[in-house]
Design goal:
This protein is mostly helical and about 350 residues long. The chain is built from 13 helices and 6 strands.
């Protein structure tokens, strides 16, 4: 007679064997065998992450608690019933869980992001008393802050007025980031893994290197999809009646989706920081680090240690050195300091 303990033992053995197989087998024979996941699998097969197993980024049905177990379970139920068969996409909770795996390989980028403004939390953005008293919160706030939030602005924060105090309806969101990694990056994006250069002919290394696609995209909240930078519009921005010259760096188009001027397209309005004056035509990313937004080391990329004015440019009275300076680094002109005219360059003497 088979004892209860033996039944439990064989059940655990079978379950453990199946779980081990599912976690180690090729995705084509496990996850991708489900036609609902086939399109995601095809994208993964062309991406730079194709050497990784699904679970290395997404975890398993048991690794992320009840949330992921329920989600995977409902996928199975809906597959065999007339239940809702929606496109399989990561919700905000999934994205935050996936980020924990992103930083295992992209530790440097994650550390920089953490130190920059794009790691701001829901509490920092939506409970900011100074901002909320000046401008009423509205649904368009979520276009850049909280792109992956699935609710409405009314469901997120209250009250929607310039009179506080303001609170989040779900206190658990206070410490969650409003701009996580996957708002600008896509795991299943087409790409090639890096390969070592061929040192046999050093002169050919430059010419044999393939041009890399921009690694960032823009997550468009209203369509719940990423948009390639090539498909993002390059806006027309005006400085009075003069058209501002914009950098041809395609990645700057992502910056301009959020750091954009008002509906009148006037430079410097809204949250616009488009370079004008002496820096006009320079890309945002020529000065700002991609992940930390830091610009402290950027001046030396273009300027010598001493400028034509015989001054260290990093110590000039601009917002680069002092946030209270009247000279905004994004829009300053030579005449802002040289009010009596720009002096002629001094000839150097040997």
């Amino acid at each position: 007679m088979i004892t209860f303990s033996a039944v439990v033992f064989f059940f655990l053995l079978a379950f453990g064997s199946f779980t081990y197989y599912w976690d180690t087998a090729s995705p084509q024979t496990t996850c991708a065998s489900c036609h609902e996941i086939e399109s995601s699998s095809n994208m993964w097969a062309q991406s730079g992450h194709r050497a990784l197993l699904c679970r290395e980024c997404h975890g398993t049905a048991l690794s992320n608690g009840f949330h992921s177990l329920k989600e995977k379970g409902m996928m199975v139920v809906n597959h065999f019933t007339e239940g809702e068969r929606r496109d399989i996409k990561l919700d905000e909770m999934d994205v935050l869980e996936t980020m924990e795996n992103c930083k295992r390989c992209h530790g440097e980028e994650y550390a920089k992001w953490t130190s920059g403004g794009h790691s701001a939390t829901y509490a920092a953005i939506f409970l900011n008393e100074k901002h909320n008293a000046k401008e009423q919160l509205n649904s368009d706030c979520l276009r850049c802050h909280g792109m992956l939030y699935e609710g409405t602005i009314q469901e997120l924060v209250k009250p929607l007025s310039v009179n506080g105090p303001w609170t989040l309806n779900d206190p658990g969101k206070s410490t969650q980031p409003v701009i996580p990694c996957l708002t600008c990056h896509k795991v299943h994006r087409e790409g090639l893994p890096a390969v070592p250069a061929n040192p046999s002919d050093p002169k050919k290394i430059f010419y044999e290197r393939k041009a890399d696609l921009p690694k960032a995209l823009f997550y468009y909240r209203y369509e719940k999809n990423h948009v390639e930078v090539a498909d993002l519009p390059s806006p027309t921005i005006w400085d009075g009646v003069r058209k501002v010259e914009l950098s041809d760096d395609p990645l700057q188009r992502i910056c301009l989706q959020c750091h954009s001027p008002s509906a009148f397209h006037q430079a410097g309005t809204g949250d616009d920081r488009t370079p004008r004056g002496i820096h006009e035509g320079i890309s945002c990313l020529a000065c700002h680090d991609h992940h930390s937004n830091d610009s402290r080391e950027s001046c030396k990329n273009c300027h010598p240690a001493i400028s034509n004015c015989q001054l260290d440019v990093t110590k000039m009275n601009t917002t680069f050195a002092d946030s209270k300076s009247p000279h905004n680094i994004h829009s300053m002109r030579c005449v802002d300091c040289h009010t009596k005219g720009i002096p002629k360059r001094k000839e150097s003497r040997d």
